[in-house]
Design a protein that fits this description.
Blueprint lengths: L2 E2 L6 E5 L10 E2 L6 E2 L4 E2 L10 E5 L27 E2 L5 E2 L9 E2 L3 E2 L7 E2 L11 E5 L9 E7 L2 E2 L7 E4 L3 E9 L13 E3 L9 E2 L2 E4 L4 E6 L11 E7 L2 E2 L7 E5 L5 E9 L13 E5 L7 E3 L11 E4 L7 E5 L3 E6 L10 E10 L3 E12 L9 E7 L7 E7 H4 L17 E6 L7 E9 L6 E12 L3 E3 L1 E2 L6 E2 L4 E2 L2 H4 L29 E10 L5 E10 L4 E2 L7 E3 L9 E7 L6 E2 L4 E2 L7 E2 L13 E3 L4 E3 L12 H10 L18 H11 L10
Parallel strand pairs: 19-25, 38-48
Antiparallel strand pairs: 1-4, 2-6, 3-5, 7-8, 9-10, 11-12, 12-15, 13-14, 13-16, 16-17, 18-20, 20-23, 21-22, 21-24, 24-25, 26-36, 27-30, 28-29, 29-36, 30-35, 31-34, 31-36, 32-33, 32-35, 37-44, 39-40, 41-42, 41-45, 42-43, 45-46, 45-47, 49-50
Length: 679
């Protein structure tokens, strides 16, 4: 111990072991200084045993030892009483004193060592953990808590609790708030770890989609002790993150869906708590043939793409040669005694998306055995890759017959064939799987030939929408200004063939249709946000999207567009923030335009739109069309300030870049960020 004083004092080492007696205590002071670690004086207290301390060279009555005294180590009888000491190593007994024992850190009798209450779990990946230390004993108001991680002091910690974010070994000690060398021993450690959940499992283990169809991948549930409040899912396709996919299920559309899918579970509280990746699920898409398609069974049977289902592994579909048609599909019911058996002949998948109407035709020859023994034939159609089938043709016995009943083995002549025609118009816009289902009645032979699927090509698929642009919006008319069109500044060729769109469409016109505000891009996206179709179109001043010929709706080629399939729409403009639909659409949507002027219809809601006059529109100011309005867009505006014409710094679309209007739009929308799928 050291004493602050102006006297000529040296330090002595005294070996003392002190025992406290139950008497009132006072603090020793000295006129010229004070004890940094105070000594307690108590009359009628005797010293016991031995310990080691460093003290100023002074007697215990407040009198200093002679100036020439040196450091000494003292020992004495076990029950001796002392009052002061001199430099001759002799104890002088007068008033008896008590010295409070000093401990590590250099202070006298600090609090007992703290303990840490064991947490309910030591896994930081399960729940956030708050460590709590035992209370500071009464009588030590000057002490605070100091927390340590892996032996290193955690700065700015002084309370009894500690919210923990990182794994490690945690201890705590009590520290005198004013004396850095006055503290307790550290507590026993609490070791915290980060052990994430096991990797999820995706079902089904493999998925094959029908062209134009969709399927669902499902990840196993987040199980206790891990909580869905703290964990989400992250889906990947071929190792790339699928934006916005955070649920336990993932709907996969057939367009662009082929690939390997995985998923992981991750904590929203800690980047270290991520499960291993799940099993990889391969998604395949059945290839579809484009009509017209025909089959006369002249090739080996079954033809490529055809499939025979023979449940009883007995008599089934095969090929047979006849006089008029050559080789035909044939089922020998005459020798097939297992009545009620079903044999199926399935065609390849055909894509009817590019047709406006469609028919299915085939030639048939059949004779029953008699009124008791006869057979049946159904034609069934599926538009979901065979999950469900609808019956579109169902005949049996005399209704199926093309010739009179005969007890002989039936072989048709040229007059005993009939052509059947089935309309498939209800399946136009989709892919279809057609199959023949023969039901055996131990009747007579059945022949099929010249199968054909055909139709009329469709002019296209209309996608209708309404949308406003903030820049040219006129609150007085509640329409958008057509200044660019009035000044003949709108180009005749679509302007999105450069950075950042690189759209290669050839849309062009000889003249701009009436009341056009500007060109826009209409994107049709799958449910993962991938653009699968894109068209440049016009925007009319009342917000209606137009085809290049001025008719309502952006017209897309029909090929690949599947009626009733699920899509999303995005609207892009060269200097306004793009938006994407919040809802899933079934296309075409002629007569029911999707309304982007309503925040509820836009992904991200009102944050993605600019309020106008009782309506909403796309935010002006995204001059580089990157989905964020920031200083880069301001730089475009500044560099084009004073320009006239069709330029991206002209946010209000009046044909000139000026501070009034253009700068105000950018300033109002600065820091706006578009939805993830349009950035």
């Amino acid at each position: 111990m050291k004493k602050n004083t102006n006297s000529n004092v040296t330090v002595v080492n005294i070996i003392l072991m002190l025992a406290l007696m139950a008497q009132p205590a006072t603090i020793i002071t000295n006129p010229t200084g004070h004890w940094q670690c105070p000594l307690v004086v108590n009359n009628q207290t005797r010293l016991q045993a031995i310990d080691f301390y460093t003290m100023p060279r002074a007697n215990l009555n407040g009198n200093f030892v002679a100036a020439n005294a040196t450091n000494h180590s003292f020992s004495r009888p076990a029950a001796a009483a002392i009052d002061n000491f001199n430099n001759n190593n002799n104890f002088q007994v007068a008033n008896t004193v008590n010295l409070q024992t000093l401990v590590a850190g250099g202070c006298n009798l600090p609090p007992t060592n703290p303990t840490i209450n064991p947490p309910s779990s030591n896994n930081l990946c399960i729940v956030p953990i708050t460590l709590t230390a035992s209370s500071i004993p009464a009588g030590y108001p000057e002490f605070v808590y100091h927390w340590f991680r892996n032996g290193t002091f955690i700065q700015m910690t002084s309370s009894s609790s500690l919210l923990v974010f990182n794994p490690g070994s945690y201890t705590v000690r009590l520290q005198h708030a004013a004396m850095s060398n006055c503290f307790t021993t550290q507590s026993s450690p609490i070791v915290l770890i980060e052990l994430p959940p096991d990797g999820p499992i995706i079902t089904p283990s493999e998925l094959t989609l029908c062209r134009g169809g969709s399927g669902v991948l499902t990840a196993s549930a987040i199980l206790p002790p891990f909580s869905s409040m703290h964990y989400n899912y992250r889906w990947y396709k071929d190792g790339d993150l699928i934006k916005g996919a955070s649920a336990s299920t993932l709907t996969v559309g057939s367009i662009g869906a082929e690939g390997h899918y995985t998923v992981e579970i991750y904590s929203i509280l800690s980047s270290n708590c991520v499960s291993p990746l799940s099993n990889s699920v391969l998604v395949l898409v059945n290839q579809a043939l484009n009509p017209p398609g025909s089959q006369n069974f002249s090739s080996p049977f079954p033809p490529p793409g055809y499939e025979v289902v023979n449940a009883d592994n007995h008599i089934t579909w095969t090929a047979q040669t006849t006089v008029c048609n050559g080789q035909s599909a044939f089922l020998n019911h005459y020798n097939y005694s297992s009545t009620g058996q079903v044999d199926i002949l399935t065609l390849p998948i055909y894509d009817l998306s590019s047709l406006s109407n469609s028919t299915f035709t085939f030639d048939i020859a059949y004779a029953p055995y008699d009124a008791t023994y006869f057979d049946a034939l159904r034609v069934e159609v599926s538009n979901n890759c065979g999950i469900d089938f609808n019956t579109v043709y169902d005949k049996s016995g005399s209704n199926l017959a093309t010739a009179p009943a005969t007890i002989n083995n039936f072989v048709p002549d040229c007059s005993q064939w009939r052509t059947e025609t089935i309309e498939l118009n209800q399946y136009v816009g989709n892919s279809v799987l057609v199959r023949f289902v023969a039901i055996n009645g131990y009747g007579n032979n059945l022949y099929l030939d010249n199968i054909n699927i055909s139709g009329t090509p469709s002019p296209g698929v209309r996608v209708e929408a309404t949308v406003n642009l903030q820049g040219p919006f006129n609150s007085g008319t509640n329409n958008m200004n057509t200044t660019l069109s009035n000044l003949n500044m709108i180009p005749l060729f679509q302007p999105y063939n450069s950075d950042p769109w690189y759209y290669e469409g050839t849309e062009s016109v000889e003249s701009i249709p009436p009341n056009v505000v500007d060109w826009i891009l209409v994107d049709v996206c799958d449910l993962l946000g991938n653009v699968i179709f894109r068209k440049a179109a016009f925007l009319r001043n009342d917000g209606v999207v137009l085809h290049t010929d001025g008719t309502v709706g952006a017209l897309f080629p029909a090929a690949g567009f599947y009626h009733g399939n699920n899509y999303k729409i995005a609207i892009r403009h060269r200097n306004h923030l793009a938006v994407v639909s919040a809802n899933i659409l079934s296309l075409p949507n002629a007569g029911t335009p999707y309304n982007f002027t309503l925040p509820a219809n836009v992904a991200g809601g009102v944050t993605q739109l600019a309020p106008l006059n009782f309506t909403y529109g796309l935010k002006a100011g995204d001059a580089n069309a990157d989905g964020v309005i920031n200083y880069q867009d301001y730089n475009v505006f500044r560099n084009q300030l004073g320009f006239t014409g069709y330029v991206n710094g002209d946010f209000d679309l009046n044909g000139q870049v000026i501070v009034t209007g253009d700068y105000a739009h950018h300033t109002a929308n600065a820091s706006a960020i578009g939805w993830s799928s349009v950035r």
